[in-house]
Design brief:
By secondary structure, this protein is mainly alpha-helical. The protein has a domain of 37 residues. 34% of the residues lie in helices and 0% in strands. The radius of gyration is 24 Å and the shape is elongated.
């Protein structure tokens, strides 16, 4: 099924899935549950989807949730990487064992 209500559903972390479900209506959650049972059938995900579907059938309304276009985790900072010559760590002397060009360091 390619027309799932959540883009890239199969790769969403479980931690963000619950929040994203709040934005879906009953047919959307039902479609995800059907897809999950037919493909991954992951017990925690099925339980989460069944619980949300039950709340929707009990009168809950779809609400905010995460926007579909928001990244699920991480991502590069907007200004680029803060790492540069001014923020690099000190030069290190690799251990002498196994490297004949590096003499042993005194103790």
């Amino acid at each position: 099924m390619t027309d799932l209500p959540l883009p890239d559903y199969d790769h969403l972390p479980l931690g963000t899935l619950e929040t994203r479900l709040h934005a879906l209506d009953e047919p959307g959650v039902a479609a995800l549950l059907e897809h999950e049972r037919a493909h991954g059938d992951r017990l925690p995900v099925v339980q989460l989807l069944e619980a949300r579907l039950g709340r929707l059938r009990g009168g809950a309304e779809p609400s905010g949730g995460l926007p579909a276009s928001e990244p699920s985790a991480g991502g590069a900072p907007a200004g680029g990487s803060p790492v540069g010559p001014a923020t690099t760590g000190p030069a290190i002397n690799p251990p002498s064992h196994g490297d004949p060009t590096n003499p042993a360091q005194p103790r």
